[in-house]
Design goal:
Number of strands: 0
Mean pLDDT: 83
Shape: elongated
Helix content: over 70%
Order of helices and strands: HHHHHH
Structural class: mainly alpha
Low-confidence stretches: 35-39
Radius of gyration: 35 Å
Oligomer: single chain
Distance between the termini: 77 Å
């Protein structure tokens, strides 16, 4: 009894075809795009950099004024009027001609104000108020400097080269008004620095730490 030869099917088995089609979505899942950079994190990083710059510049100004309070002015107070006038003229000349001092002196207010505005725009009002208070304290420092210290410096410069016949009455203004104003400048800078440090603490608490997301 003869049997007809069985025809071989060229169609692939259903499970193989199905497996191939099922593998395509898996391949697509494996080829996901890399996540986009977190712009919110980069902005927070910029805020942190600005806060650090504000703290640095404010700390430098507080340190400068404090040095005059505890060493420069008491030391000059033990010298004669001619030495006092000559030394202060030299100090003022060096500071007035220093670009680095000008950068720090103005930068302290500029950076503190900038980061305060950023804090308010990002909705971090508590941090913004601390920074605004710091900026106002330092603004008072600038007003004291321009209203009291600089005019007295100019009077001292008008003496020219101090000599035996020079009228040294301006020295008494320095020992009273200038030194008192400088003490207030120191205290205001320290208050401003405290506000910035508080803002740094608040910023650190609000910024997500790596691995905690």
């Amino acid at each position: 009894m003869s049997h007809a030869p069985m025809s071989r099917s060229t169609c692939p088995p259903a499970d193989v075809a199905g497996g191939a089609s099922a593998g395509r979505p898996a391949a697509k899942l494996r080829s996901r795009k890399a996540p986009a950079p977190d712009t919110h994190d980069s902005r927070d990083r910029l805020t942190g950099i600005l806060l650090g710059a504000a703290a640095l510049t404010m700390g430098l100004m507080a340190g400068l004024f404090f040095a005059f309070d505890v060493s420069v002015m008491p030391g000059l107070g033990k010298a004669d009027d001619r030495t006092y006038a000559t030394a202060m003229q030299n100090f003022n000349s060096v500071i007035d001609g220093s670009g680095l001092f000008a950068l720090v002196f103005i930068g302290a207010l500029a950076v503190t104000t900038w980061v305060a505005v950023r804090a308010f725009r990002k909705g971090r009002r508590t941090m913004g108020w601390w920074l605004l208070a710091a900026a106002l304290c330092y603004l008072a420092v600038l007003l004291l400097t321009m209203g009291i210290n600089i005019p007295l410096n100019n009077k001292l410069a008008d003496l020219g080269h101090p000599g035996p016949s020079t009228d040294y009455s301006v020295i008494e203004d320095f020992k009273g008004t200038w030194e008192t104003a400088n003490i207030f400048r120191t205290l205001l800078c320290l208050a401003a620095l405290g506000g910035i440090v508080r803002a740094l603490v608040l910023h650190g608490r609000a910024t997500p730490q790596p691995g905690n997301g």
